[in-house]
Amino acid sequence: MDHARAALSNLFSVEPMSYTRFSIARQTDGDNSHVEMKLSADDEEGGDVERPEHMHASMAQPQRSGKRLCFLVIAALLLLLIGFLIGYLSYRGRMQLAARCQDGSGSCEMTPTASYLVDGEAAEEEIQGPPVIYWPQLKTMLSDRLSATRLVDSLRQRTDVSSFEAGEAEDTTMATYIHDQFNSFFLDKVWNDEHYIKLQVRGSTRNKVSVLVGESEETLETPDAYVAYSESGSVSGKPVYVNYGLKKDFETIQKSVASLNGSIVIVRAGKITLAEKVANAKEAGAAGVLMYVDSHKYGITDTLIPFGHAHLGTGDPYTPGFPSFNHTQFPPIESSGLPHIAVQTISSSAAAKLFSKMDGDSCSEDWKGGIYSCKVTTKQESKIMVKIDVNNSMKDRKILNIFGAIQGSEEPDRYVVIGAQRDSWGPGVAKAGTGTAILLELARVISDIVKNEGYKPRRSIIFASWSAGDYGAVGATEWLEGYSAMLHAKAFTYINLDAAVLGANDIKISASPLLYVLLERIMKGVKDPASNSGNLYNRVGSDWVKAVVPLGLDNAAFPFLAYSGIPVVSFGFYNKDEEYRFLGTKDDTLENLRKFNNLDALLRAAAEVAGQVALRLTHDHELFLDFGRYSEELLAYQEKFLPYIKDVQELGLTLDWLFFARGDFQRAADALRRDIENSDRENKVIRRALNDRIMKVEYDFLSPYLSPKDVPFRHVFFGKGSHTLQSLVEHLQLLKTNKNSVDLNLLKEQLALTTWTIKGAANALGGDIWDTDNEF
């Protein structure tokens, strides 16, 4: 301080002035917080030395006043000049950066991945840190590096192998290859997860389907394929055809058939999963199920027999809710989704032969499909029966999930997961090959951008290769179960790459509502492979959200959303009028997939969509998740509830509390939006807190009042069970159609579960406990 005073004295040629000093003196009268201000630096004992009240009164010689005033004016002018120069250079640097980030359309999204760089004229070499990379630049880097040739080359690795069954040598070899590839891309982390699971596999002898006529037995078919988790043993019953096996199909057939108890139900593939068909048949009392692919309708060989599984769920059905890590104490329970009836797939030719032997009523035109000899059932007095012999066996197998990670620079403990199934019963080119090829290509490209362009994603990206996907997303589900305590708080999006190309004409999208806006923007920026000038958004149209396909149990993204509460997106090309019927068969080959035009371009476009989703979510300051979208989803359900207000009131109940909860969520979403607008987005602590509130929205729609062991898919929008909003709608509909079948206690429980789950989601979205809406 003395040196500073001396410097000031020399500069202005005056004597150093006294300065103000604060000291805290302990008072003897009890007030020891008194602050005493002393105006002297040379009176350490606190003596009373008189000082002039104003600074200028201390000057000894009046003639120095004008000189010193001159120096003050000059100093002020210099400070003003320096401030002007600093402001000008800063403004000029920002304008040049903004000009460089233009993407040709005149727009620029100013969300840099590092601090702003100064202009090149102002000592740029003194500033440390990565270069600024704006979103338009990042999109271009991704697009320029994606290679359609490499994608197709990856598919060729599956051309000489007939099967990649989970836990077998081919699956393990592919896992090792992917692990080595991740290492060669210099990812920050590469690791494996081992799971020890129970799988039902093909037995030592083939399964058999026979026709019994009186005392004689005629073998209909001995398929090479099998259905996992079927009940083993022998069962026979009267054959009954039930179209696609939908609930409405069973309701239709039960109007003409007295009972389905003990029958063998025949269904064709499509509309819903095999496991759902089996569950509907079991509920109707059937003893077995036969499923075939309608080859005549799809123009494929009539000897095609699909593989499949009959577990109405995901994961290892013998450790429901628990991870199958080594040394896990397996609980003595099994999944309630196991059917405990015989299930087998047959060829279309075998189904036609079976129909020809039946002597009942012919199928209606909308049930007939491509088999003109189709019969619904045999006559009551007929002695024709169908027998199914299932010889499947249980095996303990080790499967591997392979992971690679690019760690984020600011929030490494927040991550996007990009995943693809690796295993398949056949070659699995479309089912598992396309997703695996895209997974490896994205890992290579994004790693290259990070290593060679200096790009630093704010959040981490995890690349995952799953095993046992054909058995019901077993590998992915076991991982979710093993890390359930942390994943809902760290993983904020799952991108599913399975079956990315199943056609060329149409686009299929399944996604969380939180990602609708992001998907729309990305589709506008990705070129349509079928058009030289168009983009993917032009293909889906402005009302594409109405065509979003609900996630099914056969989609690996389903457990991420419905079990773990993680937003998901599953995107792919397909043909609406001509389904790819080779999934899960020995004919899922590159040759058959090549029949679609522009396979290379389609693979590349799917990879670009997935890559942009991952990069955008890890690039921006604020998570690109539209939390307000669920307000619209809740409003849509409220409109479905409105017709039943009076019917509910007649039962002594009310829908008001459910409507109030929806309003609370709307207000909480509006409050969060205001908090984001009014916050300092450069403050990392505040930004992280706001992002955490956004990323928890999906998780908060998992009903906290249900056990994940008993009801694994607890999501009130997308889960399975009586707790869902859709189940509540279906129960309310009975008030109009069949009031006697309404379960009053169940209805009360449904109203309570949905109301308090939505209210809880609103409270969580509001932030701190003192910010919640207590007017409910």
Structure keywords:
20 strands, Aminopeptidase, phosphoprotein, 24 helices, 4-stranded antiparallel β-sheet, signal-anchor, alpha/beta, disulfide bond, 5 domains
Write a brief structural summary.
This protein has 776 residues and is of the alpha/beta class. The protein is 38% helix and 16% strand. The protein is built from 24 helices and 20 strands.
Largest sheet: 8 strands, mixed
N-to-C terminal Cα separation, in Å?
61 Å
Shape: globular
Domain count, please report it.
5
Mean pLDDT: 85
Cα-atom radius of gyration: 35 Å
CATH homology group of the largest domain: Zn peptidases
The CATH topology label of the largest domain is Aminopeptidase
Query: What CATH architecture of the largest domain do you see?
Result: 3-Layer(aba) Sandwich
- Count the helices. How many? 24
Sequence stretches where pLDDT stays below 50 over 5 or more residues: 1-64, 94-127
CATH class of the largest domain, anyone?
A: Alpha Beta
Question: Strand portion, in percent?
Answer: 15-25%
Write the layout of secondary structure elements.
Layout: H1 2-12, E1 21-24, E2 35-38, H2 64-100, H3 135-145, H4 148-156, H5 169-184, E3 189-201, E4 208-213, E5 216-221, E6 227-228, E7 233-237, E8 239-241, H6 247-253, E9 264-268, H7 274-283, E10 288-292, H8 295-298, E11 308-309, E12 342-346, H9 348-357, H10 365-368, E13 384-390, E14 393-406, E15 411-421, H11 429-453, E16 459-466, H12 474-482, H13 484-490, E17 491-496, E18 501-502, E19 506-511, H14 516-525, H15 536-540, H16 557-562, E20 568-574, H17 590-593, H18 599-619, H19 629-641, H20 645-650, H21 656-678, H22 684-695, H23 725-737, H24 744-766
Parallel strand pairs: 6-11, 8-9, 9-10, 10-12, 15-16, 15-17, 17-20, 18-20
Antiparallel strand pairs: 1-2, 3-14, 4-5, 4-13, 7-13, 14-16, 19-20
Helix pairs in contact: 3-18, 4-11, 4-18, 11-18, 19-21, 21-24, 23-24
Domain Peptidase M28: 401-595
Subunit structure: Homodimer; disulfide-linked.
Family: Belongs to the peptidase M28 family. M28B subfamily.
